[in-house]
Specification:
CATH topology: Rossmann fold
Number of domains: 1
Structural class: alpha/beta
Shape: globular
Distance between the termini: 16 Å
Number of helices: 4
Largest sheet: 8 strands, mixed
Mean pLDDT: 90
Number of strands: 8
CATH architecture: 3-Layer(aba) Sandwich
Length: 155
């Protein structure tokens, strides 16, 4: 049974936080789905990943290709990759259900700390997932480094 980790981006940009988390998830040996809501923004993330530092290249693809199932990192705006991935990263307020959290090793929900709508959407997701019995952690980088601010259930 997995857990949902909420990342409140106060200092970090989406692309820098995502690169860090993708590297860690890939280091754990997980196939990863990055789910967004805006195809244009997902193409922007695709470009960022292709043009990152050579020593930290993260192999990936946009969903819809012939080899989606074998891609280490799959960028998509669909509700779920097929087959399901060990790690799901939600950006742009993409929906994540309790069944997905329970089936994954890890779900990461990244949201912009300078966008009131994104913060409200994250609160709604936190409540829905924890009310459904999912484990969750809330992390913030408001002081420049990542600090766990809340956990459900409390350990």
């Amino acid at each position: 049974m997995g857990a949902a980790y909420f990342y409140h981006l106060k200092q970090s940009s989406l692309d820098s936080a995502l690169l860090l988390l993708l590297g860690k998830a890939q280091g754990a040996g997980w196939q990863i789905e990055v789910r967004g809501t805006d195809p244009g923004q997902m193409e922007w993330l695709d470009e960022k990943l292709w043009h990152g530092a050579a020593d930290s290249f993260l192999p990936h693809a946009m969903a819809g290709g012939a080899h989606d199932g074998v891609q280490p990192i799959l960028l998509t705006t669909n509700s779920a990759a097929d087959p399901p991935r060990a790690c799901l990263m939600s950006v742009q307020g993409a929906d994540v259900g309790a069944a997905e959290v329970n089936a994954a090793e890890r779900v990461c929900i990244l949201f912009d700390g300078h966008d009131a709508d994104a913060e409200q959407r994250a609160r709604v997701q936190w409540k829905a997932l924890t009310d459904a019995g999912c484990s969750a952690q809330y992390w913030s980088d408001e002081d420049g480094s990542w600090v766990k601010k809340a956990e459900h259930p409390k350990s």
